[in-house]
Amino acid sequence: MAKVDKPKILVVNDDANSLFALTSLLAQWADQESYEVIAARSGEEALRQVLMHDFAVILLDVNMPGMDGFETAEAIHQRARSANIPIIFITAFVADELDRLKAYQKGAADFLFTPVIPQILHAKISVFVALAMKNEELKRQARQLNQRTTDLISSNRRLLQEIEERKVAERQNHAKDEFLAMLGHELRNPLSAISSAASLLGLPAVTGDAAVRAKKIIQRQSQHLGRIVDDLLDLSRAMSGKILLNRAPVDVAALVRNCLETYRTTGRTADYEVHVELESGWVDGDVTRLEQIFSNLLDNALKYTPPGGAIDVLLEVDEEDVVLTVHDTGVGINAELLPHVFDVFVQGTSTLDRAQGGLGIGLALVRRLVELHGGGVEADSAGPGEGSTFLIRLPRTERITEPTLQIMETNEQAKPTVLLIEDNDDGREMMAMMLSCYGYEVRHAADGLQGLDVARDYRPGVALVDIGLPGIDGYEVARRLRADPDMRHIRLIALTGYGLAEDQRRVLDAGFDMHLVKPVDIDSLMKAIASLTSGEAAATAQAAPAAPAALRS
C-alpha cells in the first residue's frame, strides 16, 4: 500500500517568539491529529514553501514588515494550485468590519486574535486537517476510479479485438472449408470425364469416332487438371514470396494480341463480341506471368458474361505506366463484394452448383503477380447486371530490340537415341510410347542406379531424368553422368513437378541442360529435344528457365 503523506500546516510570523509559541502549541496535537507543522518567518518564505508543498491550512500573521499578511494571502491565492488553501489570519488587534471584509476578499477563511486560546486553535485546526484528509481520500478514490475505468476500457478494447479476430478466423476457416469443397468438386469433374473416356476406350465395340472423341476428352480434361494444379502452386508461391520473375523487355500489345488469337483459335471467344484497342507499350516483365495475368482477366470476363455479351480490351500508355483495361457486360459485382474480389478464395457465388465454376483464386493471383511487377490492379462495377471493369497498371519502360532465339524443328534424318529414367510405371510407359511414335529409339529405367547402368551400355544422345527417383535422385544421376568422360556428351533434360526459380537453378547446377515441369506436352518435349541436338543447345539452355512456364500453358 502506498504511503500517505500527512497533512501540513504552515505557520507564518515575523516574530520569532510568537512563531515558536504557535509551532510548539501545534506540535502538542501533531501526533494525535496526524499532521506536520512547517514554519516561515516572512511572506516571501511562505510563498517558497507553498511552491514546494500542499497545505491543509495556513496560519498567517497580518502585521509583517515588507510583505504583509494580506499581500501574502493574495499572492498565494493567485497561483492555481494553492488557490483553495484555507488561510486563518492571526492579529493582535481587534479587526473592525472593514478589516474583516478586506481579509475575506484576500481569501481568509477565519480570524484568530492573540493571545490565542489553545482550545479554539485546536478545534479550528482539527476541522481543516480533517477536511484536507477527506479531500485527499476523495482524490485517491478518484484516481483509483480513473484507473479502473482505464483498465475496463482497455479490457473492453482487448475483448472487442479478440471477438473481431475470432470472427475473422471463423470467416477464414469457413472460406477454407468452402474452398476445399470447391477443390474436390473441380478435381472430380475432369477426373470423372477422364475415367469415363478411358473406360470407353477399353470397350470392344467402341467406334473409331468415339475413340477419337474420348482421346480428345482425356487430353482436354488432363490439361484442365494441370491448370488447376498450376494455379494452386502459383498462388502458394505468390503468397509466400517464392515467385522469381524472369524479366525481359515485353511489348504488352503483342502479348495481348497473341493471347487473344489463341482464344479465337480454340473457339473460346466465339460466342462473344470482343472489341480490342491496343497501343504499343513496353514493360520490363516476365512474359509467362504477364500472359497469366491477362489470361486470368479474360477467363474471368468470359466466365461471368453470358454468351452474346461484349468484352472490351483496351491498352493505353501514359507517361509512367502501361494501362490494360478489360471490361465486360456480365453479371457485375455487388458493392459488398467489390473490395474483396482480389482476396483469396472469394467468389460472387460460393455454392457448388454455380454455373461459372473455378476455385476463386484467379484474381488473387492476378493481384500478386501485378504487384511483383511493381504495378497495381483495380476493380469497378456499377452493381449486379452492370458488368465489371478490371484495370492493370504496369511501370512503363523504353522499347528494347533484342534478337529472338530460334528453336530448331526436329530433324527427321538424325533423331537422337533417348534414355528415359522415371519411377512411375504408367508415366514411363506412356512417355516411351509417345517418343517411339515420333520415331525415337527409347530405352528406359525405373530408378537412378539402373538408369546409370543403361546409360553405360546404351550411350544415348539424350536422357530424360525424373528428379524424384528412388535410390539416388535425379540430381545425383546428372552429377555422375557428367563426372564420367564417356557419358559427358549426353544431353540431360530434367523432368520434375517442381517449378520454382531455385529448383531450376539447382537442376542446372547439377549438370542438366534443361528443366521441364510436369506434365510435359509432347510438342514442347519434341522442341526441347530438337533444341538440344541441333547446334543451338547453348542458346536454348541459357533460355531454359522460361521453358517450364511454356509447358504449363
TrEMBL record:
The modification 4-aspartylphosphate is found at D61, D466. The keyword Nucleotide-binding does not apply. It catalyses: ATP + protein L-histidine = ADP + protein N-phospho-L-histidine. Its EC number is 2.7.13.3. SUPFAM superfamilies: ATPase domain of HSP90 chaperone/DNA topoisomerase II/histidine kinase, CheY-like, Homodimeric domain of signal transducing histidine kinase. Residues 128-155 form a coiled coil. GO terms for molecular function: kinase activity. Residues 182-398 form the Histidine kinase domain. The keyword Transferase applies. Keywords: Coiled coil, Kinase, Phosphoprotein, Transferase. Residues 8-129, 417-533 form the Response regulatory domain. This is histidine kinase. It comes from Pseudoduganella albidiflava.
